[in-house]
Design a protein that fits this description.
This protein is α/β, with parallel strands linked by helices and 314 residues long. It contains 14 helices and 13 strands. The protein has helices at 47-62, 75-85, 95-102, 112-123, 146-152, 157-166, 177-181, 186-193, 207-216, 231-234, 258-263, 267-277, 280-291, 297-307, and strands spanning 17-18, 23-25, 38-42, 66-70, 90-94, 128-130, 140-145, 173-175, 202-204, 222-226, 237-239, 252-257, 311-313. A five-stranded mixed β-sheet has the order 9-8-10-7-11. Strands 1-4-3 form a three-stranded mixed β-sheet. It is elongated. The two termini are 34 Å apart.
Protein backbone atom coordinates (compact mmCIF):
# COMPACT_ATOMS: atom_id res chain seq x y z
CA UNK A 1 0.00 0.00 0.00
CA UNK A 2 2.49 2.52 1.20
CA UNK A 3 5.85 3.55 -0.12
CA UNK A 4 7.33 3.31 3.35
CA UNK A 5 10.97 2.61 4.10
CA UNK A 6 14.27 3.56 2.60
CA UNK A 7 15.43 2.58 -0.84
CA UNK A 8 17.88 -0.22 -0.26
CA UNK A 9 20.82 -0.30 -2.61
CA UNK A 10 21.86 -3.61 -4.06
CA UNK A 11 18.49 -5.33 -3.77
CA UNK A 12 17.76 -5.29 -7.47
CA UNK A 13 19.24 -2.86 -9.96
CA UNK A 14 17.03 -1.52 -12.72
CA UNK A 15 18.78 -3.74 -15.25
CA UNK A 16 18.38 -6.75 -12.96
CA UNK A 17 20.86 -9.20 -11.54
CA UNK A 18 20.78 -13.01 -11.51
CA UNK A 19 19.73 -14.69 -8.28
CA UNK A 20 22.61 -17.04 -7.54
CA UNK A 21 21.50 -18.69 -4.29
CA UNK A 22 22.08 -22.43 -3.94
CA UNK A 23 18.61 -23.43 -2.75
CA UNK A 24 16.53 -26.56 -3.30
CA UNK A 25 12.89 -27.49 -2.74
CA UNK A 26 11.52 -27.92 0.76
CA UNK A 27 7.77 -28.20 1.15
CA UNK A 28 7.29 -26.44 -2.19
CA UNK A 29 8.96 -26.93 -5.55
CA UNK A 30 9.45 -30.67 -5.31
CA UNK A 31 10.21 -32.15 -8.69
CA UNK A 32 11.48 -28.74 -9.80
CA UNK A 33 8.42 -27.81 -11.92
CA UNK A 34 10.12 -24.63 -13.18
CA UNK A 35 13.22 -26.42 -14.47
CA UNK A 36 14.33 -24.63 -17.65
CA UNK A 37 12.22 -21.52 -17.02
CA UNK A 38 13.77 -18.06 -17.01
CA UNK A 39 11.70 -15.72 -14.83
CA UNK A 40 12.07 -12.15 -13.63
CA UNK A 41 10.71 -11.04 -10.25
CA UNK A 42 10.03 -7.45 -9.25
CA UNK A 43 8.87 -5.29 -6.35
CA UNK A 44 8.29 -1.73 -5.29
CA UNK A 45 10.99 0.14 -3.39
CA UNK A 46 9.96 -0.25 0.25
CA UNK A 47 11.23 -2.85 2.66
CA UNK A 48 8.20 -5.11 2.95
CA UNK A 49 7.61 -5.38 -0.78
CA UNK A 50 11.29 -6.02 -1.46
CA UNK A 51 11.25 -8.88 1.07
CA UNK A 52 8.13 -10.36 -0.56
CA UNK A 53 9.68 -10.06 -4.02
CA UNK A 54 12.81 -11.82 -2.80
CA UNK A 55 10.64 -14.64 -1.43
CA UNK A 56 9.06 -15.21 -4.83
CA UNK A 57 12.46 -15.25 -6.51
CA UNK A 58 13.92 -17.73 -4.02
CA UNK A 59 10.93 -20.06 -4.33
CA UNK A 60 11.20 -19.93 -8.11
CA UNK A 61 14.94 -20.60 -7.87
CA UNK A 62 14.42 -23.61 -5.63
CA UNK A 63 11.82 -24.92 -8.09
CA UNK A 64 14.42 -24.95 -10.86
CA UNK A 65 14.06 -21.58 -12.58
CA UNK A 66 16.77 -19.16 -13.57
CA UNK A 67 15.71 -15.98 -11.78
CA UNK A 68 16.48 -12.37 -12.64
CA UNK A 69 16.07 -10.03 -9.67
CA UNK A 70 14.45 -6.70 -10.57
CA UNK A 71 13.10 -5.88 -7.14
CA UNK A 72 13.32 -2.37 -5.67
CA UNK A 73 11.84 -0.50 -8.64
CA UNK A 74 10.90 3.11 -7.83
CA UNK A 75 7.24 3.53 -6.94
CA UNK A 76 4.19 1.42 -7.61
CA UNK A 77 3.61 2.22 -11.27
CA UNK A 78 6.97 0.99 -12.59
CA UNK A 79 6.57 -2.43 -10.96
CA UNK A 80 2.95 -2.62 -12.10
CA UNK A 81 3.93 -1.84 -15.70
CA UNK A 82 6.66 -4.48 -15.59
CA UNK A 83 4.02 -7.11 -14.80
CA UNK A 84 1.54 -5.87 -17.41
CA UNK A 85 4.15 -5.72 -20.18
CA UNK A 86 5.73 -9.04 -19.26
CA UNK A 87 9.08 -7.46 -18.36
CA UNK A 88 8.59 -9.24 -15.02
CA UNK A 89 6.76 -12.46 -14.25
CA UNK A 90 5.66 -11.95 -10.66
CA UNK A 91 5.49 -9.71 -7.60
CA UNK A 92 3.37 -9.18 -4.50
CA UNK A 93 0.76 -6.45 -4.95
CA UNK A 94 -1.86 -4.98 -2.61
CA UNK A 95 -5.58 -5.29 -3.29
CA UNK A 96 -6.42 -1.75 -2.16
CA UNK A 97 -3.71 -0.25 -4.35
CA UNK A 98 -5.03 -2.09 -7.39
CA UNK A 99 -8.69 -1.32 -6.69
CA UNK A 100 -8.24 2.38 -5.99
CA UNK A 101 -5.04 3.48 -7.73
CA UNK A 102 -4.81 1.23 -10.80
CA UNK A 103 -8.46 0.43 -11.49
CA UNK A 104 -9.76 3.85 -10.48
CA UNK A 105 -12.47 3.07 -7.93
CA UNK A 106 -13.25 5.74 -5.35
CA UNK A 107 -14.72 3.49 -2.66
CA UNK A 108 -13.06 0.37 -1.24
CA UNK A 109 -14.95 -2.87 -0.72
CA UNK A 110 -15.29 -3.63 2.98
CA UNK A 111 -14.90 -7.41 2.67
CA UNK A 112 -11.26 -8.38 2.06
CA UNK A 113 -12.31 -11.45 0.06
CA UNK A 114 -14.82 -9.57 -2.09
CA UNK A 115 -12.32 -6.82 -2.80
CA UNK A 116 -9.72 -9.40 -3.87
CA UNK A 117 -12.30 -11.13 -6.09
CA UNK A 118 -13.29 -7.82 -7.70
CA UNK A 119 -9.65 -6.91 -8.36
CA UNK A 120 -8.90 -10.39 -9.70
CA UNK A 121 -11.83 -10.28 -12.10
CA UNK A 122 -11.33 -6.73 -13.36
CA UNK A 123 -7.56 -6.98 -13.79
CA UNK A 124 -7.80 -9.96 -16.15
CA UNK A 125 -8.31 -7.57 -19.06
CA UNK A 126 -4.91 -6.05 -18.26
CA UNK A 127 -3.14 -9.38 -18.58
CA UNK A 128 -2.64 -9.73 -14.83
CA UNK A 129 -3.47 -12.90 -12.92
CA UNK A 130 -4.10 -12.56 -9.18
CA UNK A 131 -3.39 -15.57 -7.00
CA UNK A 132 -5.13 -15.97 -3.61
CA UNK A 133 -4.34 -13.23 -1.14
CA UNK A 134 -2.66 -13.41 2.23
CA UNK A 135 -4.11 -12.01 5.45
CA UNK A 136 -1.15 -9.60 5.52
CA UNK A 137 -2.95 -6.24 5.47
CA UNK A 138 -0.72 -3.20 5.08
CA UNK A 139 -3.25 -0.46 5.72
CA UNK A 140 -3.48 2.79 7.66
CA UNK A 141 -4.04 2.85 11.40
CA UNK A 142 -3.65 5.09 14.43
CA UNK A 143 -1.35 4.03 17.25
CA UNK A 144 -0.65 5.15 20.81
CA UNK A 145 2.22 4.32 23.14
CA UNK A 146 1.44 1.69 25.76
CA UNK A 147 2.67 4.18 28.35
CA UNK A 148 0.06 6.78 27.38
CA UNK A 149 -2.61 4.19 26.79
CA UNK A 150 -2.32 3.06 30.40
CA UNK A 151 -4.09 6.34 31.19
CA UNK A 152 -6.61 6.46 28.34
CA UNK A 153 -7.41 2.76 27.71
CA UNK A 154 -8.12 3.28 24.00
CA UNK A 155 -8.86 0.18 21.94
CA UNK A 156 -10.78 1.43 18.89
CA UNK A 157 -11.15 4.53 16.76
CA UNK A 158 -14.61 4.91 18.27
CA UNK A 159 -12.86 5.28 21.62
CA UNK A 160 -10.79 8.10 20.11
CA UNK A 161 -13.98 9.78 18.87
CA UNK A 162 -15.48 9.55 22.37
CA UNK A 163 -12.33 11.00 23.94
CA UNK A 164 -12.24 13.85 21.43
CA UNK A 165 -15.77 14.84 22.42
CA UNK A 166 -15.18 14.49 26.14
CA UNK A 167 -11.74 16.16 26.19
CA UNK A 168 -10.86 17.77 22.81
CA UNK A 169 -7.48 18.99 24.05
CA UNK A 170 -6.37 15.44 24.87
CA UNK A 171 -6.47 14.17 21.27
CA UNK A 172 -3.32 15.34 19.53
CA UNK A 173 -2.22 13.50 16.41
CA UNK A 174 0.92 13.28 14.27
CA UNK A 175 0.37 12.51 10.57
CA UNK A 176 2.04 12.79 7.18
CA UNK A 177 1.04 15.69 4.94
CA UNK A 178 -0.68 13.37 2.48
CA UNK A 179 -2.70 11.56 5.14
CA UNK A 180 -3.84 14.92 6.51
CA UNK A 181 -5.60 15.78 3.25
CA UNK A 182 -6.68 12.48 1.65
CA UNK A 183 -10.32 11.39 1.64
CA UNK A 184 -9.14 7.93 2.71
CA UNK A 185 -6.98 9.57 5.37
CA UNK A 186 -7.65 11.89 8.28
CA UNK A 187 -10.56 13.95 6.86
CA UNK A 188 -12.49 10.84 5.85
CA UNK A 189 -11.73 9.11 9.13
CA UNK A 190 -12.99 12.09 11.13
CA UNK A 191 -16.21 12.13 9.10
CA UNK A 192 -16.74 8.37 9.42
CA UNK A 193 -16.29 8.44 13.18
CA UNK A 194 -18.01 11.77 13.86
CA UNK A 195 -14.95 13.38 15.37
CA UNK A 196 -13.51 16.84 14.79
CA UNK A 197 -9.88 17.26 15.77
CA UNK A 198 -8.85 20.95 16.05
CA UNK A 199 -6.25 21.99 13.47
CA UNK A 200 -3.97 23.07 16.32
CA UNK A 201 -3.94 19.44 17.54
CA UNK A 202 -2.78 18.05 14.18
CA UNK A 203 0.97 17.97 13.62
CA UNK A 204 2.41 17.10 10.20
CA UNK A 205 5.77 15.37 9.77
CA UNK A 206 7.63 12.62 7.91
CA UNK A 207 6.46 9.06 8.49
CA UNK A 208 9.59 7.87 10.28
CA UNK A 209 9.46 10.70 12.81
CA UNK A 210 5.86 9.89 13.74
CA UNK A 211 6.82 6.60 15.39
CA UNK A 212 9.46 8.28 17.53
CA UNK A 213 7.18 11.15 18.51
CA UNK A 214 4.35 8.84 19.59
CA UNK A 215 6.69 6.52 21.45
CA UNK A 216 9.12 8.86 23.16
CA UNK A 217 7.48 12.27 23.49
CA UNK A 218 4.22 13.85 24.52
CA UNK A 219 3.92 16.00 21.41
CA UNK A 220 1.19 13.73 20.04
CA UNK A 221 -1.01 11.20 21.74
CA UNK A 222 -1.75 9.37 18.49
CA UNK A 223 0.15 8.79 15.28
CA UNK A 224 -0.57 7.58 11.77
CA UNK A 225 1.10 4.19 11.23
CA UNK A 226 1.01 1.30 8.80
CA UNK A 227 -0.23 -1.95 10.25
CA UNK A 228 2.68 -4.12 9.10
CA UNK A 229 5.44 -1.75 10.18
CA UNK A 230 8.07 -3.41 12.34
CA UNK A 231 8.48 -0.31 14.48
CA UNK A 232 5.04 -0.84 16.05
CA UNK A 233 6.32 -3.59 18.32
CA UNK A 234 9.86 -2.28 18.51
CA UNK A 235 8.57 1.03 19.92
CA UNK A 236 5.90 -0.55 22.13
CA UNK A 237 2.83 0.93 20.44
CA UNK A 238 -0.82 -0.13 20.60
CA UNK A 239 -2.66 -0.11 17.26
CA UNK A 240 -6.28 1.01 17.54
CA UNK A 241 -8.94 -1.10 15.86
CA UNK A 242 -10.73 0.47 12.90
CA UNK A 243 -14.07 -0.78 14.23
CA UNK A 244 -16.13 0.89 11.49
CA UNK A 245 -13.87 -0.53 8.75
CA UNK A 246 -13.15 2.87 7.25
CA UNK A 247 -9.64 2.27 5.93
CA UNK A 248 -9.31 0.18 2.74
CA UNK A 249 -7.98 -3.37 2.85
CA UNK A 250 -4.47 -3.67 1.44
CA UNK A 251 -3.99 -7.44 1.46
CA UNK A 252 -0.85 -8.69 -0.27
CA UNK A 253 -1.30 -11.22 -3.07
CA UNK A 254 0.96 -12.54 -5.83
CA UNK A 255 0.28 -11.06 -9.24
CA UNK A 256 1.56 -12.88 -12.31
CA UNK A 257 1.90 -11.79 -15.93
CA UNK A 258 -0.94 -13.86 -17.41
CA UNK A 259 0.98 -15.22 -20.38
CA UNK A 260 3.67 -16.42 -17.98
CA UNK A 261 1.09 -18.04 -15.73
CA UNK A 262 -0.52 -19.79 -18.70
CA UNK A 263 2.89 -21.26 -19.53
CA UNK A 264 3.75 -22.14 -15.93
CA UNK A 265 0.51 -22.75 -13.99
CA UNK A 266 2.60 -24.57 -11.37
CA UNK A 267 3.41 -21.11 -10.00
CA UNK A 268 0.14 -21.21 -8.08
CA UNK A 269 1.15 -24.36 -6.20
CA UNK A 270 4.47 -22.73 -5.33
CA UNK A 271 3.10 -19.45 -3.99
CA UNK A 272 -0.26 -20.39 -2.43
CA UNK A 273 1.34 -22.02 0.65
CA UNK A 274 3.57 -18.98 1.06
CA UNK A 275 0.63 -16.56 0.99
CA UNK A 276 -1.29 -18.66 3.51
CA UNK A 277 1.54 -18.20 5.99
CA UNK A 278 1.97 -14.46 5.49
CA UNK A 279 0.08 -12.50 8.15
CA UNK A 280 0.23 -8.92 9.40
CA UNK A 281 2.15 -10.15 12.44
CA UNK A 282 4.67 -12.04 10.32
CA UNK A 283 5.17 -8.94 8.18
CA UNK A 284 5.80 -6.83 11.29
CA UNK A 285 8.50 -9.26 12.40
CA UNK A 286 10.19 -9.38 9.00
CA UNK A 287 9.96 -5.62 8.45
CA UNK A 288 11.53 -5.02 11.86
CA UNK A 289 14.53 -7.10 10.84
CA UNK A 290 15.09 -4.70 7.94
CA UNK A 291 13.93 -1.34 9.28
CA UNK A 292 14.93 -1.72 12.93
CA UNK A 293 17.81 -4.22 12.90
CA UNK A 294 19.27 -3.19 9.54
CA UNK A 295 19.33 -6.65 7.95
CA UNK A 296 19.41 -7.17 4.18
CA UNK A 297 15.93 -7.90 2.70
CA UNK A 298 17.26 -10.84 0.69
CA UNK A 299 18.71 -12.46 3.80
CA UNK A 300 15.50 -11.83 5.75
CA UNK A 301 13.43 -13.48 3.01
CA UNK A 302 15.79 -16.45 2.66
CA UNK A 303 16.12 -17.08 6.39
CA UNK A 304 12.34 -17.04 6.83
CA UNK A 305 11.67 -19.38 3.89
CA UNK A 306 14.22 -21.85 5.23
CA UNK A 307 12.91 -21.59 8.80
CA UNK A 308 9.38 -22.25 7.57
CA UNK A 309 10.57 -25.22 5.53
CA UNK A 310 9.49 -23.86 2.14
CA UNK A 311 13.02 -24.17 0.72
CA UNK A 312 16.33 -25.66 1.89
CA UNK A 313 19.96 -24.75 1.43
CA UNK A 314 21.55 -26.61 -1.44
Amino acid sequence: MVLLGVTLAGCGLKSGSPMVDDVVPGSVGRGKPLDGASLTVTSKNFSENIVLGQMIGLVFKAAGAEVLDRTNLPGSISAREAIIKGDAAAMYEYTGTAWITYLGHAKPIASPLKQWEAVRDEDRKNGVTWLPQSTLNNTYALAISKKNNAEHHLKTLSDVAALSKMDPAAVTICVENEFASRDDGLPGMEKAYGMSIPASNIRKMDAGIIYTQVSKSNSCLLGEVYTTDGRIKAMDLDVLVDDKHFFPNYNAAPVIHTATFDKYPEIAELLDPLSKRLTTEVAQQLNAKVDVDGEDPHKVAKDWLIAEGFIKKG
